[in-house]
Amino acid sequence: MNLHEYQAKQLLTRFAIPVPESVVAASLDEVRAAAESLGMPALVKAQVHAGGRGKAGGVRRCASMTELEAQARALLGSRLVTAQTPPNGLPVSRVLLETPVAIARELYLALLVDRAAERIAVMASAAGGMDIETVAAADPEAVLVSHIEPALGLRPWQCRQIGLFLGLTAAQQSAFAGLLNGLYQLFIRCDARLVEINPLVVTEAGELIALDAKLDLDDSALYRQPELAALHDPSQEDAREVAARAEGLSYISLEGDIGCMVNGAGLAMATMDLIALHGGAPANFLDVGGGATAERVARAFALVLSDDKVAAVLVNIFGGIVRCDLIAEGILAAVQEVGVKVPVVVRLEGTNAALGLERLARSGLAIETAATLVDAANKVVEAAAAQRARVPHAGGET
Fold first, then answer.
1. Is the pLDDT of residue 398 over 50?
2. pLDDT over 90 at 278, yes or no
């Protein structure tokens, strides 16, 4: 779960990590009140779950109250489009007003889970304020990675090593050690997956300040973080993903045009791989679970079809715990209820698979069955191509 910048900075403050003076506002009245307490000049920063806000006009410096009101009015209620948002952008319901900082240097600092190393990794670079992936690709030596031993935690020598790598002075080393220890404690105690400070600035006065912050929390640990879970902002997520979560379904929107409904995460990933191998592109990941019922399948089917760019649907069910004839009933109920206008290919295997396929064949509905997964992938890719040819806007084209 991602947090907004203002939420992340509130957490940083709790762990004694310096941040600029700032106030969040959700209306023009709140903007005016915040500006009176902060004074001028001030930065107004759109609050969305995406990076690249500055380049997209989401961070604006204002020299007067008049200018601040105009810029805040333009941002509040708009949709900000950046390189990291969907094509239609993300809604801006709050802005953060912040006191500008006199910057001498910009650094990069992050803690993240390195699953290959089975450690928390600290990443640091003197090239802050830039895309760290680009920096790492162009000059790998510009990024230092230091892994934290779980049994020992962050060690003083690591703080010194990273501080020296960043070119901090002796006077700044102590402040940096405290800041890094605070970030580590935040990471552990808040069940984070990523804590990124970009940029971490050295001010002209020689102080260290976290100018921007990105926090990604582990969804699986939110049950023990009710205070943090309450910070969730569903407006920043795909509406279908929010609806799926409410139904207990695992759904992720993708860029393709072939809808997928599968039971089991591993089978779902294999299904998407085969679709890609045969020249198609999945529109989603959807795992309805090993114990899927007819009703659950019907809801999942409707969810897949709510995506306008879907040109064909592949249903791939292995009936181990679940019976395939019941799955077939769910598919038929969904097709009849939703009024499906795109081709549907179904592959059933396992308990009562033959009975399920027979029910689909007798239904009289436009549902094509497949004997194998390879056969299903071929058929759905061909069906999607034919649908796009018949309906020019199918698959999200305009």
1. no
2. yes
Those residues with Cβ within 8 angstroms of residue 209's Cβ, 6 or more apart along the chain or in another chain:
18, 19, 20, 101, 200, 201, 203
Range of the domain at 122: 103-229
Tell me how long the chain is.
398
**pTM summary value:** 0.79
CA nearest to 159, candidates 143, 142, 146, 140: 146
Taking the C-alpha atoms of residue 213 and residue 196, their distance in angstroms, rounded to an integer, is 6
Active site residues: 108, 196
Flag whether 292 is in a domain: yes
What is the CATH number for 286? Answer: 3.40.50.261
- Residue 62: give its domain's CATH number: 3.30.1490.20
- The fraction of the chain above a pLDDT of 90, given in percent, is 63
Cα(216)–Cα(218) distance, integer angstroms: 7
Instruction: Give the CA distances from residue 209 to residues 17, 102, 159, 229, in Å, rounded to whole numbers and listed in that order.
Output: 8, 11, 16, 27
Q: Which residue, 302, 326, 327, is CA-closest to 317?
A: 327
Task: Give residue 332's pLDDT band: very low, low, confident or very high (50, 70, 90).
Answer: confident
Confidence class for position 291, pLDDT limits 50, 70, 90 = low
Residues 328/347, Cβ–Cβ less than 8 Å: no
* Rounded Cα–Cα distance for residues 181 and 178 (Å): 5
Identify the burial level of 151 via C-beta atoms within 10 angstroms of its C-beta, where 0-12 means exposed, 13-18 middle and 19 or more buried: exposed
> In terms of domains, do 111 and 219 share one?
yes
* 294: confidence class by pLDDT, cuts 50, 70, 90: low
User: How many other CB atoms sit within 10 Å of the CB of residue 247?
Assistant: 12
Give the side-chain half-sphere CA count within 13 A for 167. Answer: 14
Domain contains 16: no
- Chain CA centroid to CA 368, Å: 34
Burial (0-12, 13-18, 19+ Cβ within 10 Å), 152: exposed
- The count of domains in the chain is 3
> Above 70 in pLDDT, residue 392?
no
φ, ψ of residue 230 to 5 degrees: the values are -70, -15
Task: Tell me, yes or no, whether 265 and 186 share the same domain.
Answer: no
- Is there a cis peptide before residue 87, judged by omega within 30 degrees of 0? no
Same domain, 71 and 158: no
